[in-house]
Design goal:
The protein contains seven helices and 17 strands. The chain has helices spanning 7-30, 37-51, 118-134, 141-152, 241-254, 261-266, 273-281, and strands spanning 59-69, 72-74, 91-100, 103-112, 156-159, 162-165, 167-168, 174-177, 187-188, 204-212, 219-220, 226-229, 259-260, 285-288, 291-292, 299-308, 313-315. The strands form five sheets. Strands 7, 8, 9, 10, 16 and 17 form a six-stranded antiparallel β-sheet that branches. A three-stranded antiparallel β-sheet has the order 1-3-4, with helices on one face. The radius of gyration is 19 Å and the shape is globular.
Length: 322
């Protein structure tokens, strides 16, 4: 397929990417210890909505603002009433997405105020840039994983007099992105031994890596905030009127894009917890709980969205910051 035929898609991706760049530039200036996680997310989201010119499902936020702290690597956003305050010695992964016509930019960075974490940030940034460098049309996905791991694990970090090797979190990975579909099937491993499937022309990938001083694997934690309608879910009859009502709210506001409890409340949902549980139990909605490594360890993330055009590799979300 020629580039001309895809020009509209390319332009939509670039518009979403520009909104992401401008939003994060603003966030990097305002995020400070002492702010609540809710304040940080609401400020980021309001900015992002304005810059992407939010318009129903045509343009807006692609998924909730991840602001996972310390040993939590991903999928934490504050639920309503969460009083968590960002501390000087926290290490916070800011992972947010924009979209135009369902063309998603998924891009993340790590915020740390204490310079003792510098090596961790450097390792993960280097690992992500390595993945981007190796990526390309016809490249087997496992080659990215092997290259990423080699770079990540060449680093170590000294914390409070103890030296820790920096490991990849082996059960987290990058992914193919589809229209209105954040995870579209293929995965990009960040350790060696992954799938030998090849990258293809005009595919869009999120290349993300995670470093940790912990075990190198994450597991589900409690208090879920992230949810998403199952992309392939066929019609399921619902007995409960309140579940039907909530599903309508989800479909109208988010379609197949991810959402969180704060966003349900913003959309006017009330007393929705039982209905949400019902939709999850029936497989219509999938929960994505916070993903944590061992308590006491630290984790970091960097992520970019890339487009494999026939003539070149475009790092859509690249900015002057990272």
């Amino acid at each position: 397929m020629s580039e001309a035929m895809n020009e509209e898609m390319y332009q939509e991706l670039r518009r979403a990417a520009e909104a992401h760049r401008q939003t994060r530039k603003y966030v990097q200036n305002f995020i400070k210890p002492g702010m609540t996680m809710i304040e940080i997310c609401e400020e980021l989201e309001a900015t992002s909505r304005a810059l992407v010119a939010e318009k129903g499902l045509e343009a807006g936020l692609a998924f909730p603002t991840g602001c996972s702290l310390n040993h939590c690597a991903a999928h934490y956003t504050p639920n309503p009433g969460d009083k968590t305050v960002l501390q000087y010695n926290d290490i916070c992964k800011i992972d947010f997405g924009t979209h135009v016509n369902g063309r998603i930019i998924d891009c993340a960075f790590t915020v740390a105020f204490d310079p003792k974490y510098d090596q961790m940030l450097k390792a993960v940034k280097d690992a992500t840039n390595t993945g981007i460098r190796v990526a390309g049309i016809d490249v087997p996905l496992n080659e990215l994983g092997e290259a990423i791991q080699e770079v990540m694990e060449s680093y170590e970090i000294e914390l409070n007099g103890k030296v820790f090797p920096i490991k990849c979190i082996r059960n987290l990975n990058g992914h193919l992105i589809g229209q209105y579909r954040i995870h579209a099937g293929k995965t990009v491993p960040i350790v060696k031994g992954g799938e030998t499937t090849r990258m293809e022309e005009n595919e869009i990938y999120a290349i993300e890596t995670f470093g940790t001083t912990g075990k190198g694997t994450v597991h589900d934690d409690n208090d879920c905030s992230h949810y998403m309608k199952n992309f392939d879910e066929q019609f399921v009859p619902l007995r409960l009127a309140k579940s039907k009502h909530l599903l309508n709210t989800i479909t109208e506001n988010f379609g197949t894009l991810a959402f969180c409890k704060r966003w349900l409340e913003r959309a006017g949902a009330e007393k929705y917890l039982m209905s949400l549980k019902d939709l999850c139990e029936k497989g219509i909605v999938d929960p994505y709980p916070p993903l944590v490594d061992a308590k006491g360890c630290i984790t970091a993330q960097y992520e970019h969205t890339i487009l494999l055009r026939p003539t070149c590799k475009e790092v859509l979300s690249r900015g002057s910051d990272y």
